[in-house]
């Protein structure tokens, strides 16, 4: 009997450590599918810094570098500058990218480094146990904002895609999600476009993916999806924020 | 080749290129900025890669990414900048990546000053980064030696897959001296296919290489550290370097000094010799590994009555000298740490006072 749905070659045959209802697994799969479709498995280097996805290299089937907290864009810059022929992506969470790594992401994007960032934004520090992130919503309770995020004291959540899109250097900046099949298909197309732009040496590419963290939100997976749709997506609107003025690329599927 | 008159920083930069290093990541800081300025012009001539980063923190992780691909790469900075890089140095040690750092030291702590100093001895030798982390440390005493050491630094970094630091001071970086570059053939990095992220298609096509320092299993982390320790012990056995001066006769005092300060001490030894006072100088060339056996043996000589560590800092290497000598002979320190270099006359005066004090007791 023919099998129509199989594991992408670029994904390792290994169960993940992610919590029930977490969207990392879906995003990993999309990346694996796109790399297979573009036939880039043997020419890819992933970079994952500290965070829930620091062990991402266990789930992919290609070369990987582990990075310090926030530093994946610098590591990817080092890789790409000495090996421009490789396909390089960073896989970063919001605590990592929008807080400690804000300097590195802004300057990598501003230099127009030819790598791709997959930015998994779930509005909380996951691995360290649910602390407030720069992306945490106003009023959202976390272990370090037990009374809810007080915007008078710590300001409003940072919209990283819009912030990077304000840089004059050409880039592809988009915000997607994976909480419904429709969004998953769109997110895959965005990743496909980002990797293609990179392989054409066109520009820096940034794919934000608004994600869930049921464990640290104190919700069931179903509640987490509803909260993402109703609360996060109301503040972090989906869609392309910036497109490079280069030849249009074909999307997958 | 003929000698050319060059500033230390520029000689270091040119020597790196000649050693086959075509990748440099820059962040400006006095007194080493000429290294980056030189390479910004020089590297494009040879098809190399120069990139100015947004911070020293970014620099060290760019170096990590490049080294992780098996590329020969280096950076340079000065004291406060090295502090910012120290997290990344620890990651390089943990991931066992080859990389070269040049530290043209200035005075501290904090912003300190911009004049020559040797006040990063402890940082380089003992505190390169968090965790059980060591760097190979080479200390040049002239522009020529600094240039010669660059090829050695890359060779050591790649042989041991560990960061190597060339630890100079502001004088080594800023002064001009005649230098001749060794006729050398750049050697390719060996065996990198076993560990570097070169893309699987460059290898067998189905075994990923992984650059990482995380070991959550305590037994594996313990073993990892034991493996690193074995590497450091091998460095100590095979790579130790030091130099003796005026050690043939019956010296009364043993001076221990490195880098620029050791050259001043050499002159002081000559001055004292002219006055009939016999003093020997031991110059550690590798600061890690540290030539403790050699210092112990030189201090053991019955003629030797005292040991004096002379440093451009508040007394840092003197702890290692004391550890090497033990209680057999008195060990003291002399130095300055504001950016002034002690003169040969000052050093000679301290030696004479040391001898006089001993005669008095």
Task: Report on this structure.
Chain A: This is Thiamine pyrophosphate-dependent enzyme. Chain A: Keywords: Oxidoreductase. Chain A: It comes from Desulfatitalea alkaliphila. The complex is a heterodimer of chains A (253) and B (361). Chain A is of the alpha/beta class. Chain A has one domain: Thiamin diphosphate (ThDP)-binding fold, Pyr/PP domains (Rossmann fold), CATH 3.40.50.970. In chain A, β5, α7 and β6 form a beta-alpha-beta unit. In chain A, α1 packs across α7 and α3 packs across α4. The radius of gyration of chain A is 17 Å and the shape is globular. The two termini of chain A are 24 Å apart. In chain A, 56% of the residues are buried. With 361 residues, chain B is of the alpha/beta class. Chain B folds into 2 domains: 203 residues, Rossmann fold (3-Layer(aba) Sandwich); 119 residues, Rossmann fold. In chain B, 43% of the residues lie in helices and 19% in strands. Chain B has 12 helices and 15 strands. In chain B, the strands form 3 sheets. Chain B has a 7-stranded mixed beta sheet with strand order 3-2-4-5-7-6-13, with helices on both faces. A 5-stranded mixed beta sheet of chain B has the order 10-12-11-14-15, with helices on both faces. In chain B, strands 1-8 form a two-stranded antiparallel sheet. In chain B, α1 runs parallel beside α6, α9 packs across α12 and α10 crosses α11. The mean pLDDT of chain B is 96. At the A-B interface, β1, β2, α2 and α4 of A face α3, α4 and β9 of B.
* CATH structural class of the largest domain in chain B: Alpha Beta
Largest sheet of chain A: 7 strands, mixed
Shape of chain A: globular
Q: Considering the protein shown, what is the CATH homologous superfamily of the largest domain in chain B?
A: Thiamin diphosphate (ThDP)-binding fold, Pyr/PP domains
CATH architecture of the largest domain in chain B: 3-Layer(aba) Sandwich
Oligomer: heterodimer
Strand order of the largest sheet of chain B: 3-2-4-5-7-6-13
Work out the radius of gyration of chain A. 17 Å
Shape assignment of chain B: globular
CATH class of chain A: Alpha Beta
What name is given to the CATH topology of chain A?
Rossmann fold
**Rounded Rg of chain B:** 21 Å
Domain Thiamine pyrophosphate enzyme TPP-binding (chain A): 58-195
Protein name (chain A): Thiamine pyrophosphate-dependent enzyme
Keywords (chain A): Oxidoreductase
GO molecular function, one term (chain A): thiamine pyrophosphate binding
């Amino acid at each position: 009997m023919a099998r129509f749905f199989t594991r992408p070659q670029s994904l390792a045959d290994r169960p993940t450590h992610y919590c029930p209802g977490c969207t990392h697994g879906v995003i990993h799969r999309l990346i694996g599918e796109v790399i297979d479709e573009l036939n880039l498995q043997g020419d890819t280097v992933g970079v994952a810094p500290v965070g829930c996805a620091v062990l991402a290299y266990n789930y992919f089937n290609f070369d990987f570098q582990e990075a310090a907290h926030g530093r994946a864009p610098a590591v990817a810059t080092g890789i790409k500058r000495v090996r421009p022929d490789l396909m390089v992506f960073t896989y970063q969470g919001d605590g990592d990218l929008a807080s400690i790594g804000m300097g590195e992401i802004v300057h990598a994007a501003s230099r127009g480094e030819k790598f791709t960032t997959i930015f998994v934004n779930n509005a909380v520090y996951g691995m360290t146990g649910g602390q407030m992130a720069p992306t945490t919503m106003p009023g959202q309770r976390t272990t370090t904002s037990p009374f809810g995020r007080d915007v008078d004291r710590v300001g409003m959540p940072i919209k990283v895609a819009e912030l990077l899109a304000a840089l004059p250097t050409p880039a592809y900046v988009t915000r997607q999600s994976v909480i419904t099949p429709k969004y998953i298909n769109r997110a895959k197309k965005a990743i496909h476009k980002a990797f293609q732009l990179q392989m054409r040496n066109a520009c820096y590419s940034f794919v934000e993916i608004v994600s869930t963290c049921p464990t640290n939100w104190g919700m069931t997976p179903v509640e987490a999806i509803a909260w993402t749709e109703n609360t996060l997506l109301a503040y972090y609107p989906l869609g392309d924020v910036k497109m490079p003025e280069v030849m249009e690329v074909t999307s997958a599927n | 080749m003929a000698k050319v008159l060059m500033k230390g920083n520029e000689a270091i930069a040119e020597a790196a290129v000649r050693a086959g290093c075509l990748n440099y990541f820059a962040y400006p800081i006095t007194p080493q900025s000429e290294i980056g300025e030189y390479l910004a012009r020089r590297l494009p001539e040879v098809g190399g890669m120069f990139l100015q980063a947004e911070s020293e923190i970014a620099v060290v992780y760019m170096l990590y990414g490049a080294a992780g691909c098996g590329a020969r790469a280096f950076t340079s900075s000065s004291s406060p900048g090295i502090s910012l890089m120290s997290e990344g140095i620890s990651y390089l040690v943990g991931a066992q990546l080859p990389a070269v750092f040049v530290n043209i030291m200035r005075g501290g702590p904090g912003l300190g000053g911009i004049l020559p100093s040797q006040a990063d001895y402890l940082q380089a030798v003992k505190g390169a980064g968090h965790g059980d982390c060591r760097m190979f440390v080479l200390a040049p005493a002239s522009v020529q030696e600094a240039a010669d050491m660059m090829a050695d630094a890359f060779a050591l970094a790649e042989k041991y897959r560990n960061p190597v630091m060339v630890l100079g001071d502001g004088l080594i970086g800023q002064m001009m001296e005649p230098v001749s570059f060794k006729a050398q053939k750049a050697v390719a990095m060996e065996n990198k296919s076993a560990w570097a992220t070169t893309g699987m298609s460059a290898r067998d096509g189905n075994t990923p290489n992984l650059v990482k320092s995380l070991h959550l299993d305590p037994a594996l982390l313990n073993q990892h550290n034991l493996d690193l320790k074995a590497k450091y012990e091998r460095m100590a056995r095979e790579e130790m370097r030091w130099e003796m001066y005026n050690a043939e006769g019956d010296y009364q005092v043993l001076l221990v000094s490195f880098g620029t300060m050791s050259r001043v001490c050499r002159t002081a030894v000559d001055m004292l010799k002219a006055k009939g006072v016999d003093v020997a100088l031991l110059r550690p060339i590798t600061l890690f590994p540290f030539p403790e056996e050699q210092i112990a043996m030189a201090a053991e000589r019955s003629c030797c009555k005292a040991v004096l560590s002379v440093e451009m800092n508040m007394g840092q290497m003197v702890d290692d000298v004391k550890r090497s000598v033990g209680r057999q002979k008195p060990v003291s320190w002399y130095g300055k740490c504001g950016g002034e270099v002690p003169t040969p006359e000052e050093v000679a005066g301290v030696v004479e006072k040391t001898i006089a004090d001993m005669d008095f007791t």
